[in-house]
Design brief:
Length: 256
């Protein structure tokens, strides 16, 4: 058995609000990890949990994208408003983005920009600085390519520490500079001041986004640096052979 984790799914049980669920199922995922010949974990937080559970072998395998499917979109800065972008679900939009909307709409107004929400459709009233698009597998990459900045705010919670930064990797693969909370693996993916910015306070978020909105050349430079990092560290092209070798080693080990 090989198990793979890119979310802290064990917290669905060990941190459940009902004590009975915690008592009966709190170690459910730990038992799966312990019985696996190999656990592939998307980050160090998940890997540490697997080791604590007694997994025989643990390897960190990051979330990746197919670099050939995510291309950098040619940008003409004079033809349209800059887009501050985000991709996710309605629940994560409400949790992480809605509290930031007053600050974001203020920045959008100040810089003549627009906030793009992909997949987080809500019942909020239409807003002149907010465009809401339905998520589509066929058009997701295009929607990201048309952005100019990618955002990934998180709270510093156990669940968030288990996230693997997929949004950031998607943004960077499309040549976008990013702004993210320094939670979990985000702090490894984002090199502050190199391919984006890490921000905790509202003032840090405002300063980072404002700087990027006001400097198209900085956006292009950081975006190109981020794209290079994805190609080297977070691409299917790099990791597919590595995962194949890991799986082969498990099979060969089981034959002995």
């Amino acid at each position: 058995v090989v198990s793979d984790y890119d979310d802290a799914v064990f917290h669905n049980y060990d941190l459940h609000r009902y004590g009975l669920v915690r008592r009966l199922l709190g170690d459910k995922i730990d038992r799966v990890m312990a019985s696996s010949a190999l656990v592939m974990a998307g980050n160090a937080y998940l890997a540490q949990r697997a080791r604590q559970a007694g997994a025989a072998s643990v390897e960190i395998v990051p979330t990746v994208v197919d670099a050939s499917a995510y291309n950098v979109f040619p940008r003409s800065e004079t033809e349209r408003r800059a887009r501050i972008g985000w991709v996710g679900t309605p629940s994560t939009w409400r949790r992480y983005m809605v509290p930031m909307l007053p600050m974001l709409t203020s920045l959008a107004r100040q810089h003549g920009a627009v906030i793009r929400n992909v997949g987080g459709a809500t019942s909020e009233a239409p807003h002149p600085y907010l465009e809401v698009l339905p998520w589509s597998e066929d058009r997701e990459v295009q929607f990201i390519q048309e952005m100019d900045i990618g955002l990934m705010p998180l709270d510093d919670s156990p669940w968030s520490r288990g996230k693997c930064g997929f949004k950031l990797i998607q943004y960077m693969a499309c040549g976008l500079p990013v702004v993210a909370s320094p939670v979990g693996v985000n702090g490894e993916i984002v090199e502050h001041g190199v391919n984006g910015f890490l921000a905790t306070t509202e003032e840090e978020w405002r300063e980072a986004i404002s700087r990027l909105l006001g400097d198209p050349s900085l956006r292009l430079h950081m975006g190109a640096t981020g794209r290079q990092k994805v190609e080297q560290q977070f691409s299917l092209q790099v990791w597919a052979p590595r995962v194949a070798r890991l799986l082969k080693s498990v099979v060969e080990g089981g034959r002995r």
